[in-house]
């Protein structure tokens, strides 16, 4: 799970002086830093006012933070977009379903985008179109310095045309999109995922009941190529009773961003703090940011105020269609909300020397169950050796899966970390392995497996390991100041690091 950077909200721990910028500056940034964890994760406001739109990642992907202040029953929005979005597909993109189209890479006549254009000589294909470095590609398009023209025809009912509609498209490189012969959008000379165009104003009449023709021209200069698009309806419910707070000031300094808002009879001061102190490595590396606030009456009267801050699991995803899991946890008397992606496709993209395979889960974020076993056992047959353990987790169903894999895998096994933990109450299962397994425990794992203390183990680590290897028909090494290898027939050796 990729967890969102922790945010601590403080309301009364700071003095009044804390909320004043420690240095005066007239600096106006093109984007204001709010949450800054590391070069890969940060949240910004690319607007003059914090309420002008949704907060974003530095790549411009939406990472929504919402801030509200209720004052004597009236709610003021001081952060986030007033117009919320929750998209429902009307004409799906390729991540939901393949879509049929006609295409060509030979330049057509100038009326190629018109609804009555004859494209019968074009090829038939299925979207998305592009290179295999992108997801959901069903028709290859990989030529460099090359153009593609795509026509997609869909039937729409009057009910599908109701509501707040949007065109969403992804492209690599430059593109232009027409709906029923009229230009709806263009894309820059680059890869852009999930461009959103609201079909309002003059664009509200582009779609019609019955037959609709989408025509796309895309140019690929070099590298990856992509064409994918669809129509979506925003089904989010707004709240017109929320009043937009008046932003009075914003100041950006080295580790703090200061805001002041007017919310009726009170003023709200908010400070976003990223504790990036360059000579404190522990603090610098901690994935924690702070949001501090104070509320001040401006009319000399007492007021009942409530401070609200929220986000969504969208904060943790790389692409909006990724499934997520969220839960509430309690540690040392403190309640935390945790959200993250269930799978980590970044491993498949970045760790190119390794092959990755999604495995069914017993529950969100927990590996285990019959379906996982049915997938993994046949999969192991294509490999010489199988390593089980690192990062598996210690859920009950995960332990059951590990024990089943030890019994059923017909390949030499290397068992480490959580796999050794899964065997600590049932080490005799090692005798059922089809090949002599190799265990690589550190002293704590070995002590837990054998029901001993680390101190007892240290007194005769070689002898105890030799007896255990013989009893359980296994080989292994116990990691202490050096690595002591013990074979199942009693042989021993020492593995030392060589530079």
Radius of gyration: 29 Å
Percentage of β-strand residues: 35-45%
Query: Which word captures the global form?
Result: flat
Q: What is the averaged pLDDT score?
A: 86
Largest sheet: 6 strands, mixed
How helical, in percent, are the residues? 10-25%
Q: Would you count the extended β strands for me?
A: 34
Query: What low-confidence regions span 5 or more consecutive residues with pLDDT below 50?
Result: 1-5, 478-482, 492-499
Query: How many helices in DSSP terms?
Result: 8
Distance N to C terminus: 35 Å
Oligomeric composition of the shown chains: single chain
Q: Pairing-aware structural class of the strands and helices?
A: mainly beta
Description:
By secondary structure, the protein is mostly beta strands. Helices cover 13% and strands 39% of the residues. The protein is built from eight helices and 34 strands. The strands form eight sheets. Strands 7, 10, 11, 13, 16 and 18 form a six-stranded mixed beta sheet that branches.
Q: What can be said about this structure in brief?
A:
The protein has 499 residues and is mainly beta.
Topology of this structure?
Elements: E1 6-10, E2 32-38, E3 41-45, E4 56-57, E5 65-71, E6 74-79, E7 87-91, E8 99-104, E9 123-127, E10 129-130, E11 139-140, E12 146-156, E13 164-172, E14 175-179, E15 182-187, E16 192-198, E17 210-220, E18 226-234, E19 243-244, E20 246-252, E21 256-263, E22 266-273, H1 281-285, E23 288-297, E24 305-311, E25 324-331, E26 334-341, H2 345-350, E27 361-363, E28 366-367, H3 370-380, E29 386-388, H4 396-408, E30 413-415, H5 418-422, E31 438-439, H6 443-450, H7 454-459, H8 461-472, E32 475-479, E33 483-486, E34 492-495
Parallel strand pairs: 1-23, 6-19, 10-11, 29-30, 30-31, 31-32
Antiparallel strand pairs: 2-3, 3-4, 5-6, 5-24, 7-18, 8-9, 8-12, 10-18, 12-17, 13-16, 13-18, 14-15, 14-17, 20-21, 21-22, 22-23, 25-26, 27-28, 32-33, 33-34
Helix pairs in contact: 3-4
């Amino acid at each position: 799970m990729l967890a969102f950077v922790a945010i601590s909200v403080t309301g009364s721990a700071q003095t009044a002086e804390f909320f004043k910028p420690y240095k005066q500056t007239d600096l106006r940034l093109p984007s204001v830093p709010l949450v800054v964890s590391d070069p890969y994760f940060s949240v910004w406001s690319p607007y003059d006012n914090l309420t002008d739109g949704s907060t974003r990642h530095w790549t411009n992907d939406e990472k929504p933070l919402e801030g509200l202040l209720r004052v004597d029953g009236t709610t003021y929005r001081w952060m986030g977009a007033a117009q919320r979005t929750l998209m429902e597909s009307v004409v799906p993109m390729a991540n939901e379903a393949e879509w049929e189209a006609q295409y060509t890479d030979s330049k057509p006549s100038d009326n190629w985008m018109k609804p009555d254009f004859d494209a019968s000589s074009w090829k038939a294909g299925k979207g998305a179109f592009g290179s295999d470095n992108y997801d959901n590609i069903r028709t290859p398009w990989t030529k460099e310095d090359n153009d593609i023209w795509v026509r997609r025809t869909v039937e729409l009912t009057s009910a599908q045309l109701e509501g707040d509609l949007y065109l969403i498209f992804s492209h690599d490189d430059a593109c232009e999109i027409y709906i029923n012969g009229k230009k709806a959008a263009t894309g820059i000379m680059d890869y852009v995922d999930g461009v959103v165009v609201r079909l309002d104003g003059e664009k509200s009449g582009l779609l019609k009941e019955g037959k609709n023709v989408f025509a796309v021209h895309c140019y690929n200069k070099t590298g990856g190529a992509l064409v994918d698009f669809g129509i979506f309806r925003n089904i989010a419910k707004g709240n017109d009773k929320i009043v937009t707070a008046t932003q009075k000031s914003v100041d950006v300094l080295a580790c703090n961003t200061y805001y002041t808002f007017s919310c009726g009879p009170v003023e709200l001061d908010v400070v976003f703090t990223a504790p990036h102190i360059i000579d404190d490595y522990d603090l610098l590396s901690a994935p924690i940011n702070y949001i501090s606030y104070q509320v001040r009456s401006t009319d000399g009267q007492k007021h009942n105020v409530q401070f609200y801050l929220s986000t969504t699991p969208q904060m943790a995803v790389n692409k909006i269609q990724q499934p997520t899991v969220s839960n509430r946890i309690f540690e040392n008397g403190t309640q935390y909300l945790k959200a993250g992606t269930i799978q980590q496709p970044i491993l498949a993209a970045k760790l190119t020397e390794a092959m990755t395979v999604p495995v069914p889960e017993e529950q969100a974020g927990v590996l285990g169950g019959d379906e996982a076993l049915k997938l993994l056992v046949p999969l192991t047959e294509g490999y010489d050796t199988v390593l089980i353990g690192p990062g598996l987790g210690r859920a009950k169903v995960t332990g059951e899966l590990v024990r089943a894999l030890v019994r059923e895998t017909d390949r030499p096994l290397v068992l480490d970390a959580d796999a050794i933990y899964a065997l600590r109450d049932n080490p005799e299962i090692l005798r059922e392995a089809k090949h002599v397994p190799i265990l690589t425990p550190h002293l704590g794992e070995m002590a837990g497996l054998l029901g001993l203390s680390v101190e007892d183990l240290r007194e005769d680590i070689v002898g105890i390991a030799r007896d255990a290897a013989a009893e359980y028909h296994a080989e292994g090494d116990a990691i202490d100041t050096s690595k002591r290898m013990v074979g199942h027939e009693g042989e021993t050796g020492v593995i030392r690091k060589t530079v």
